[in-house]
Amino acid sequence: MATRTQPRSKAAKALAKPDLLDIYRLMLLSRRIDDKEIQLKRQNKIFFQISGAGHEAVLAAAGRVLRPAYDWFYPYYRDRALCLALGMTPTEMLLSAVGAAEDPNSGGRQMPSHWGHKALNIVSQSSPTGTQLLQAVGCAEAWLRYTRIDGIAEKPVHGDELVYVSVGDGTTSEGEFWEALNTASNLKLPVLFLVEDNKYAISVPVEVQTAGGSVSKLVANFPDLLVAEVDGCDPVASYDALVHAADYCRQRQGPAFVHAHVTRPYSHSLSDDEVVYKPPKEREEEARRDCTLTFPQRLIAEGVATEAEIAQIRQQVDEEVELAADMALGSPQPTPESALRFVYSPDVDPTSEQFDTEDDPQFSGDPTTMVDLLNACLKDEMARDPRILVFGEDVADVSREQYLKDVKGKGGVFKVTWGLQRQFGSGRVYNSPLAEANIVGRAIGLATRGLKPVVEVQFFDYIWPAYHQLRNELATMRWRSNNAFSAPAVVRVTYGGYLKGGAIYHSQTGAVVFTAIPGLRVICPSTALDANGLLRTAIRCDDPVLFLEHKHLYRQTYNKAPNPGPNFLIPFGKAKVVRSGTDLTVVTYGAVVQRALVAAKELEEKDGVSVEVIDLRSLTPVDWEVIGESVRKTSRVLVAYEDALSWGYGAEIAAKIAGEHFSWLDAPVKRVASTDTFVGYAPALEDFILPQVENLTQAMRELHAF
């Protein structure tokens, strides 16, 4: 059961007069920066504004309890007062508002109030509500993993640090909120959850969002979760509750959950007008609870401060904000071409010769399958680098470790990870809940702390709950933080059809959905040898990688190879000419490669047509040089792929060939792909839907005869 607590007065007694006055100063400073931004927006000097008004008291208190550059922080957009308390300056905040090049949050790449500060351990925040929760859990999990891995000599942990993550009441409706609480409680992770409940998610009131109107009542049964409810407009009571919550986390008793009741005296943002949905009575009641007014009155009434001292703080804050605004408005904007920087790592280039040992494999043993060589690569890499973690659903040999001696072990649905837990221990190889966003979100947090997650999403068909984390979080982390943070995780996923009985939900492809995402490398090997070398590159590179493993290719005999050794690397963006030819070119990848080879052989034997087949291997980046050389040689191109024909990955390949090599072409670029349907269960349907050898042969003949 969760532990419920009421704020205690003992901790608050530690707040002396200077502490209380500084809390007031931070609260007022936060409000005045909001007011200045609103003024600048109305003057068209900034471009967006969202305020932290009404939330200042609990956040200023949190800033006194928590430790910048020691603890880790995943704030949300109303956490201005917290960031000020941690050490972010008004100038830095206003640099963000004007989109200045020197903005430490994002270098002008993100909206204002999207906090991020490397020196303070404030991890870059994005706009989607709630996506930071699972990353915070992963960040806290890093402490757990570091403590369990003996092979890492220097561990970047303190032992009592915690991870702070905050959300508004509306975000508690998101599924990832509940996934985060579940994992944090299950693993007893030191996560301090702060819910800043101002009773509105834009215009939607809390009783519409939350069953019963109180999220703290709903979370009460999570085990080892400390639950506290507090008046977030009272900084002293908030300080009390947060000290207790932080101590609970630091003592590794489990996560803590502080539900703070605050106000929202301003509209959701300047794009919103609360007057149209919030009645005057409510707004008047909120005004009476305004912490920037009630707290100084209380300090004066209790004899802590004089009216003159309060007035002096107000004057100093106003002067500080005006000076910060002048400095920010005078700061240079980023140069336009700087937008191209930090999409990928500026330091590690996985397309370079450093990652190319393909011409010097050190073969040993008999030829074996893709599954076996993927497994061998994982074993080699985990032995080389103790920071590597492998997790996902069913990837461990067995979750109940006491049974390891009694069972053969699962090791993944397709056995790719079999034996890894037995060899490297349950601290590095472990099962996750059945929750794809949980897997990827935690991986991002772990990678941010310097670990190397190599996670598995069991089937491509079920990757979609994780798409939010892949698209909006993993791929954007480096760019949106202006290279302050990165998350070089590897996400392995099985995909594709050509397995009888796969049907709609075990045959999906859709690589184009991910190749269209800047910042994400997408790799798709077609042979066991390529799978081994490309996975090794994926693990050693410094970018996030989506590694597509075709189920149909896992145990085919035609793509077997001996083990090439622990230093075998294939660089990204290096296609392979798997069959030389002079009359036409086939550009393909994945399971269609072998079908193209069979079709090409048939065409040469029956028609005397010489077909060149290119296996892309790397879907992004693409080896345009090899493609171009082949097009200039053959002057005819067929693009073959397993995605649906329309809007598929091959459409972009065809378009670029047509655009850049038009003068070399003797025929239109032709495509062969799946029908614009889903994959059916009945074998006759599947064979008709997916591209077969006869489809490729016919297309090649038509193209050659054009």
How would you summarize this macromolecular structure in one to three sentences?
With about 700 residues, the chain is α/β, with parallel strands linked by helices. It is elongated, with a radius of gyration of 29 Å.
Protein architecture, described:
The chain has 706 residues and is of the alpha/beta class. Helix content is 38%, strand content 14%. The protein contains 24 helices and 22 strands. It has a seven-stranded mixed sheet with strand order 11-10-12-13-15-14-20, with helices on both faces. Strands 1-7-8-4-3-2 form a six-stranded parallel sheet, with helices on both faces. A five-stranded mixed sheet has the order 17-19-18-21-22, with helices on both faces. Helix 6 links the parallel strand 3 (163-168) and strand 4. Helix 5 (131-148) packs parallel to helix 6. The longest helix is centred in the first third of the chain and has 26 residues, at 17-42. The protein is elongated, with a radius of gyration of 29 Å.
